[in-house]
Amino acid sequence: MNNMKEIDAQNKILGRIATEAAMALMGKDKASYKPNAISGGKVKIVNASKMKITAQRRDNKIYKTYSGYPGGQKEMSMDYVVSKKGYAEVLRIAIKGMIPNNRLRQPRMNNLTITE
To answer: Which residue of 4, 8, 85, 95 could cross-link 42, Cys pair, CB 3.0 to 4.6 Å?
Structure first.
């Protein structure tokens, strides 16, 4: 499994981990990068619950979702998302935001594995 990149999230900042993972999922860390193909390999992130997140970020970061209906906008704090779904979901949202929103986004996200 030489195609798999493993990232240890222990004592690393959320954004730095997400950037490294997004670049590997897109294949930008390889010489054979093609923007119109899935040239990246699989990415596994371990120790997601041990990454660095400041208390201020946990309280002030707001995730918004919109259903498309009137009154359908929901807001959740990072603290709420961590308590409901864990640190893996926070990391998954950050990485998803760094990958271009096109037909290749979901296939690239399927190559991501996060363990806490």
So the answer is: 4
Q: What is the DSSP string of 43-101?
A: EEEE-GGGSB--HHHHHH-EEEEE-SSTT-EEEEEHHHHHHHH-HHHHHHHHHHHHS-S
Distance CA 94, CA 113 (A): 14
Q: What is the pLDDT of residues 17-69, one digit of tens each?
A: 999 999 999 999 999 999 999 988 999 999 999 999 999 999 999 999 999 99
106 CB-near residues (< 8 Å, 6+ apart): none
In a domain, 20, yes or no: yes
Could you tell me the residue range of the domain that residue 43 belongs to? 5-52+85-114
Assign residue 17 the CATH number of its domain.
3.90.1180.10
Give the Cβ contact number of residue 112 at 10 Å.
21
> What's the total number of domains in the chain?
1
Could you tell me if residue 18 is inside a domain?
yes
